[in-house]
Amino acid sequence: MTIIRQQDFIDSVADALQFISYYHPVDFIRALAKAYEIEQSPAAKDAMAQILANSRMCAMGHRPICQDTGIVVAFVKVGMRVRWDGDLDLVGMVNEGVRRAYLDPGNVLRASIVSDPAGERRNTRDNTPAVVHVELVKGDRVEVSIAAKGGGSENKAVMKMLNPGDDIVEWVLQSVEGMGAGWCPPGMLGIGIGGTAEKAVLLAKEALMQPMDMHELKARGPASRIEALRIELYDRINALGIGAQGLGGLTTVLDVKILDYPTHAASKPVAIIPNCAATRHVHFEMDGSGRAEFAPPVLSDYTDVHWQPAKDARRVNLDGITREQISDWQPGETILLSGKLLTGRDAAHKRIAEMLARGEKLPQGVDFKNRFIYYVGPVDPVGSEVVGPAGPTTATRMDKYTETMLGETGLIGMIGKAERGPKAIEVIRKHGAVYLIAVGGAAYLVSRAVRSAKVLAFADLGMEAIYEFEVEDMPVTVAVDSKGRSVHDIGPMEWKKRIAIIPVRANL
Fold first, then answer.
1. Is the domain of 261 the same as that of 395?
2. Is 245 helix (H, G, I), strand (E, B) or coil?
3. What's the rounded Cα separation, in Å, for the pair 434 and 117?
4. How many C-beta neighbours within 10 Å does residue 77 have?
5. pLDDT in tens, 219-240
6. Which of 74, 279, 422, 496 is the most core-located residue (most Cβ within 10 A)?
7. pLDDT, tens digit, 9 for 90 and up, residues 60-110
8. Domain span at residue 325?
9. Residue 253 maps to a domain
10. What is the number of alpha carbons within 13 Å of residue 333 lying toward its C-beta?
């Protein structure tokens, strides 16, 4: 019989979540470094350089890899010969660990969880509750696999009940193409096959907890049907040319993980859940001897990549910018922004649209005329920071507000991540505006460009309030130009053709 103290378990969960907020798994760092070395697309290589530099900065500064510090997901296997010393139930202990981790004053993590999801969507303020899966197993230990799953990648999860004769590979390829760049590639795909509908999804999520080993697998060759399927999917997904951040390139996935389970003879359930470039998970065991310990990566585990903007990057002053000045920006062009911009994402856009529909004026100080908006929900600052990690959120969620923002407020530019939908692109073209992207997974690096930050309106929305940022050389890429041309169409199309004629691809 093993006795696990409640406080040890709570402390272990809290420590684990702080640990993964600023330390990438070593296998991810190595896989991304290999992809970076062979990448031939300048735009994709620059994005990878930002992610690698950001990873190193976060490890050294103990600050979050991404501003979206995730929804906590825990798989807890409890040995049947374990006894608990405490008065909370298991889920309660996990939630207390989450609460302590996310409110840690030394490294405050962003609270992203909202209750009443179909109604008022009120932020719980401490990132609880977690999603906890508990399994009773043989033994006298507790095993925990815990992750902080970003919303952008989670939103791209797909599940389908295939017919027994349907081709899994073709469905996965079609699904990945449909995901776009909102999941912040390059990352990993978790795939669940079999069981029932909910079991397949659970398998896909659990698969994401496994270490990346695709290069080792390809070197030794597959030893099972599942391993052969992993290799085939890895090769064929990368041949799509989607690339880092959807800009086009050699590497879209760093690994594909698959778990399967017996299923009904009439069924073939399959689920896909992507993990973004802010991959965050860790495994620990408890044997009754105290709280878990976590060994940080050593500096030599990180590629010595120190991102610098391209020498030919266009420097732009946002203060006083006009539509005429943005009219010659080209898709894929690197821009360094300086000056003042406003922020706002889902909740702020909804409130703005409602105010305008009622004929009300926007809050005092909020003027979008000839200005840019950054889709971001930053982490709270600590110490001398003016703002915490402040990377972009997925822009497609703001598509339905684009006509209102461009047509009624005078806005001329937007900054986010991933592609825009066809209707939003047409609105951008109609109004002669532009859409820029910052690199998802480089939030700490991006935040270093922010020189000042203040809340202008909607303070009650927390991280979704409207801020005014003053930035200096904030790195962005032109994703949609004023003529409606999208780099997320042009880049992958070009690189899919190139990959087809590359005779040897070290990553495929």
1. no
2. helix
3. 32
4. 18
5. 999 999 999 999 999 999 999 9
6. 279
7. 999 999 999 999 999 999 999 999 999 999 999 999 999 999 999 999 999
8. 314-492
9. yes
10. 21
